[in-house]
Amino acid sequence: MTQVETHNYPVERLTEFCVRVFQYYGVPADEAQQAAHVLALGDLRGIDSHGIARLQSYCSMLSAGRINPKPNITILRETASTATVDGDNGLGLVVGPKANRIAMDKADDVGTGWVAVHGSNHYGISGYYVLEALQREQIGLALTNSTRIVAPLWGAERMLGTNPIAIAFLGCDEPPIVIDMASSAAAFGKLEMAVRKNQPIPDGWAIDIDGISTNNPNGMIDGGAMLPLGSDRERGGHKGYCLGAMIDILCGPLSGANWGPFTHPFTLGHPEPARQVGIGLGHFFGAMRVDAFTDPDEFKRQVDDWIRTFRATKPAPGTNGPLIPGDPERIRSTKGIPLVQAVTDDLREISKQTGIAFD
Amino acid sequence: MTQVETHNYPVERLTEFCVRVFQYYGVPADEAQQAAHVLALGDLRGIDSHGIARLQSYCSMLSAGRINPKPNITILRETASTATVDGDNGLGLVVGPKANRIAMDKADDVGTGWVAVHGSNHYGISGYYVLEALQREQIGLALTNSTRIVAPLWGAERMLGTNPIAIAFLGCDEPPIVIDMASSAAAFGKLEMAVRKNQPIPDGWAIDIDGISTNNPNGMIDGGAMLPLGSDRERGGHKGYCLGAMIDILCGPLSGANWGPFTHPFTLGHPEPARQVGIGLGHFFGAMRVDAFTDPDEFKRQVDDWIRTFRATKPAPGTNGPLIPGDPERIRSTKGIPLVQAVTDDLREISKQTGIAFD
Description:
CATH topology of chain A: Ribosomal Protein S8, Chain: A, domain 1
Number of helices of chain A: 10
Strand content of chain A: 15-25%
Low-confidence stretches of chain A: none
Largest interface: A-B, 93 and 93 residues
CATH architecture of chain A: 2-Layer Sandwich
Shape of chain A: globular
CATH class of chain A: Alpha Beta
Distance between the termini of chain A: 30 Å
Largest sheet of chain A: 7 strands, mixed
Oligomer: homodimer
Radius of gyration of chain A: 20 Å
CATH superfamily of chain A: Malate/L-lactate/L-sulpholactate dehydrogenase, NADPH binding domain
Strand order of the largest sheet of chain A: 2-3-4-11-5-6-7
C-alpha cells in the first residue's frame, strides 16, 4: 500500500487561515468564523475530503461570483414545527448552521423542528449539524442532495448525488452514536484514490459509460457512474437508490431546490445541469428534543446499554467485532491535522491570491 | 424456475375472514376491521409475506394470551409535535394505525407529528402507514424494529431485525413514490425460498454460525445471520448496519420498547430474548404536512417531474431502465389474491379451530 506523505498543521492555525480567507472574499467576520469551524470539524473527524481540502472550491465559487458572500437568509414559510429557508445563494457552511439552529429552536418550543432549505451550496460534513443538536439534548437529522454522480439501479447514467444522511444519539458515559453516511456503495474519494494508484476497484462500486459494471476506476471517470448502496438487484441496490431518492426529494422538491440530475454544482469544475428545476442546492434538517419522548437520563442509559451490547457482539473471523457508528470519526488528537501535499499546494495558492500568510 | 401453484381468493372474502377471526379472539369489531384492512393491503401490494399469510402467527399469539386483544392504548408523554404511545401489548395492526393517526393529527395542528410507540407487536407492512398520510397531503414516515436476524458488519451473530423504513410522496398525475424497504441486503423470505428449492443464495446475503459468508441458505438458518444492506465492508455494509441501528434506536431506546437482540418476538416460534430492556415491540411514525414547507400543487408537479425524469434515465444493458419506488407494489387487480397451498392450509386450520367458515 502506498503511504501518502502528510504534514501536520495545528487546527487553530488552519481555522484562522480559513476565517481570513473567507473574509477576504467578503464574508462577514462571524459567518467566516462559522464556516471555518464547520470545515475544521471535518478535518478533526478525519473526513479530510470535506475539510480544509475543500477551501479551494469555495474560494473559486466566491471569486467567480457564484456564491453570495453576504446572503440575506430568510424564512419563506413556517409553522410551529417547520420552516422553509431561502439561503440566498450563500455558503452552505453559513446557511446550513443557521437553518439547523432554526430547527433546534423550534424543537425547544414544540418538541421537534424540521427545516427545508433551498438556495444553498455545499454545507460541509453532515455530522456537524447533528453534533450541534447533541449539545441541546436533541436528536439531530441532516440531509443534503449533491452533484449527480450515482446511477439509480438499472440506470446507465449519473442521476443522483451521493446524498448523505446523518443522525446522532447521546449516551451517558459512552461517546455518542454518530451516523454520517452517503447513500452510495462507495465514496467517490476512494475511487479517485484507485485512479491515482492505478489500482482496480471492487465489484459493486461503479459502472462505465455503457452502464456495465467495471473494475477500472477510469471507466467510471470517463462518463460512468457510481452505484447506490447495495450495488445490484440481488444485493439490494434498489434500496440504496430508494434512500438516495428519499433524501433528494426532501432536499429538492420539498424545499424548492434543484434535484436529481439538475442538482446545483458545488464547484466550478462541474458542467451546468441541463435545466434548472429549483433554486440552488437543498438541505433538510430535523431536531427532536429527547424529553419530548422520554426521560433523557433513561434514554442516555439505554444508549449506553445499546453501545455496550453491540460492542460485545461475537466478532466475525478476522475482525475485532462491530464498531459503533461514529467510532471511526472520533475527534483526532489536537496534535495537528495531517494535510497531503496537494492540499497544502492549494492553500499556498490561495495565500498567494489573497495575500493572507499561510506558512 | 419452479412455479409455485396458487389459488385466487377475492380480497373481500379474505378480509371478512380475518375480521371474524380477530373478533373470535376477542378483538373489538372496529379494531378487527382495522387489523384486517392492514393485512389485506399487504396482499394487495404483493407483499405476501406480510399479508394474510401472517394471520396464523397473530392468532397463535392471541390464543396463547401473548397479545392483548383489548388494549388500552394511551399517550404517556406529549408535546405539540410529539407523543409517546403505550400500545398495551395490543396487535401492532391496531396500535400502529392509532399511533400513526396521532402523528397525522399533530401534523394538522403544528406542521409535523412524531410518535414513538412501545408495547406493540408486529404492525404489518410499513407502506400502509405512509399511504394513510398521503390521503391527508402529508409525507408519512414509518419505522419499526423487529426480531433479531441481521448481523452488524463484522459481527457473527443476530443482533438487529430487518428493521424497515417507509416514506411516500404524492404526485399529481403520476402515482405516488412509495419507498418501503428493509435495511438488510435481502429479505429473509427470499432465503427461505432458496431453502425450499434447495438452491444456493448469492454472495452478500448471509453468514453461517461461524460468521463466514455462505451461499448455503441452511448455513444461515442453522445459527447464522442475514447481512445488512451493503453486505461487506468494501460495498458499504457498515451503512446498512447504520441504517438498521438508526431505526432500532428510534423505535427502542427512544420509545421505551425492547431493541437490538432483545427485540420482542413477533410469533410463538421465536426463542425468548436473553433479557428485557423495554416494553414490547417499538415503532416510530412521522407525518409532515406538505403545505408546511411549500405549495402542495407545486410540490406534486415537482414529484411528477422527478418521476418522469427518472423514468427517462438511460437504461442499463439488459434492463428497461430504473423503476420508480413503489412501482413493483402497485395495487394488484382486484381479481383476487393468489395464495399458496401452505397459506390456505393455515387458513383452513384457523377455520377449524375457530369454527369460522373459510371455504
